[in-house]
Amino acid sequence: MLTVAQVSKSFSGRVLFQEASLQVNRGDRIGLVGPNGAGKSTLFSLLLGEATPDSGRIAWERNVRIGFLPQESAPAGNETVLELATAISPELAAAKNTIRLHEKGEAPDEDAYHEALRVFDEQGGWQLEPKAKKILAGLAFRESDMDRAARALSGGWIMRAHLARLLVMEPDLLLLDEPTNHLDLESLQWFQDYLRSYPGAILMISHDREFLNQLVGSIVEIAHGTLHRYKGNWDSYQEQKAARAEQQLAAYKNQQREIAALQEFADRFRAKASKASQAQSKLKQIARMEKIEAPVADAKSIKFHFPQPARSGTRVISLKNIRFGYGDLTVYQNLNFEAERGQRTVLVGPNGAGKSTLIKLLAGILQPQTGERALGHNVRTGYFSQQRTEVLNPRQTVLEAAMDSPNPQSEQTCRTVLGSFLFRGDDVFKPVAVLSGGEKSRLALVKLLLDPPNLLLMDEPTTHLDVGSIDALIQALQQFEGTLIFISHDVHFIRSIASSVLHVSAGTTTPYAGDYQYFLEKTRATSARAALTAGEGLANLQPDLDPADSQSRSGPGLREFKEQKRAEAEQRKQAAKQLRDREKAVAKLEMEVVALEAKLASLTAALEDPAAYAPGGNAMALNREMLAVSDQLQEANAAWEKAASELQTS
């Protein structure tokens, strides 16, 4: 359905593609991989017609429908979530509008109405809403969300709504750029299962190795300006790539030895009349050879040593008889937990079980209603969440922010670490105020690693990181000499880091004194990804723990929990008005943030105009206004994050 033939593309003198070719057929499942900046997103732009190749051609089969999900931003207007999810084509939207007008008695043309009915019927319009509601539910939208204005949602939920639209549309080819970034664990598992039976072809960029392992049938690697295709999933690609490099190196060395022997003969005997013809023959033999190129080594992993925290006591932190809830909803009752120095514990369990709440209780972000949180000797805690951007000063540059800490590191160390987290070259001089949400998250992570506490608490630290940056983070945490407790949906990351597992479900915590593979074996889990969100049933498969003992240690029994849940359901009905008020407040704050961001972008553009610095220019005034708007934006972002967090936990 798609042919990319001998395509070349350069930007500012830098070659991204040199005679690259690719064939995509119906039913293909292809993972597109490569280091940051290799050209993955540029290839998507070429396929979508947003950029033009310098040479070569891109040919599509006639009438092929394409669906594209960008990595971060997608538009949302006044339509509801359900309307956005069902807006699969302009023709269908127009037909639907004509039918609606006719039902109101406002359609003047009967022929237009019948034509609209025909188009609506041919494009499956009658099945759209049920299908869209099913997909939206799979992506964790509630029934009450369906009629909310899409623009009132946060950016991540808008992306989910657009993903739902693509799945409802069912294009012949899905182009997905990091589609798992905005999904929680259960939505990710549902999405992964849904794509297994997707009828069209899929070409996706993803840093999630487990996701690629489960879905793709081939990997296309962008490296050194070319496209290399490997059959199989991510793990198979890694093995084939290593074997291919080894074979190429062996062939290259053999040929170089042969060339050296021929050249030595020619050099020795070319001056002798009796051997001159033979020497010349050897030189011609060298010239006729099809030269094997030396394998180009991948960019080496950046090697660095992070500073290490001060040593803590053996007992790092304990929670004793903790009770905590949100309003009338009790999350934990009589919770007891203890961590010792050097532990690396991953929290697993279903959405809403209380994993993030437990992390926040350990960090001191949330205060228990009863019970005690006790830190051990010389313990300093550090908490990282995806919203942890309040540690950043918008007036600083990226490099200044990295170097601004109680224990500052050298500029070279900071630049090295920033480079491993995608801040390269002149990026380190960008103002923090103009960074995207993902860039701010990565910068906050860098600051934490450059001055680490000895108790590190992390909630989904790999979001917005590419494969190379995840490997850099793994390297840093493997060096880390303190205590680590974290939540993640990245199976590779968990396998590389965790030395113990804590399963959280229904207010109950069950410890597993082994790594993630041990946890999978003890619980008889059938899927490494699905086990991350498994609930009560998985915990009950634990054969070597007394269930009664586990219950007494960690929280209420299942019967009491279910009775409590029924009472909570009734209370949630009564809280509907309060929820709507909070949703309106979040929407209002989000519009304020959008307006301030637009104003900041306008001021930045004005400052880039040389006329602002000419005699009589207004550069100083623009700078003052930019700083004021940056402060307002920081306050608005903080207010929005607080309101959104309160809404999420309500």
Identify the notable features of this structure and list them briefly:
single chain; 650 residues; alpha/beta; 6-stranded mixed beta sheet
Structural write-up:
With 650 residues, the chain is α/β, with parallel strands linked by helices. It is built from 22 helices and 18 strands. The protein has helices spanning 40-47, 81-86, 90-103, 110-122, 128-138, 155-169, 185-196, 209-215, 234-269, 276-288, 355-363, 398-403, 411-420, 437-450, 467-479, 491-497, 516-523, 536-539, 547-554, 558-574, 576-607, 619-649, and strands at residues 2-11, 14-24, 29-33, 55-60, 66-69, 173-177, 201-205, 218-223, 226-231, 315-326, 329-340, 344-348, 370-375, 381-384, 455-459, 483-487, 500-505, 508-512. The strands form four sheets. Strands 5-6-7-3-8-9 form a six-stranded mixed beta sheet, with helices on both faces. It has a six-stranded mixed beta sheet with strand order 14-15-16-12-17-18, with helices on both faces. Helix 3 (90-103) crosses helix 4 (110-122), helix 5 (128-138) packs across helix 6 (155-169) and helix 9 (234-269) packs antiparallel against helix 10. The model is unreliable at 539-562 (pLDDT under 50).
- Ranges where pLDDT stays below 50 over 5 or more residues in a row are 539-562
Helix count equals 22
What is the number of beta strands? 18
Query: How many strands, which pairing sense, and closed or not: the largest β-sheet?
Result: 6 strands, mixed
What is the rounded Rg? 29 Å
Strand content: 15-25%
Query: Distance N terminus to C terminus?
Result: 47 Å
The helix content, as a percent range, equals 40-55%
Main sheet: strand order: 5-6-7-3-8-9
Question: Averaging pLDDT over every residue, what do you get?
Answer: 83
- What sort of overall outline do the alpha carbons produce when their principal axes are compared? globular
Structural class: alpha/beta
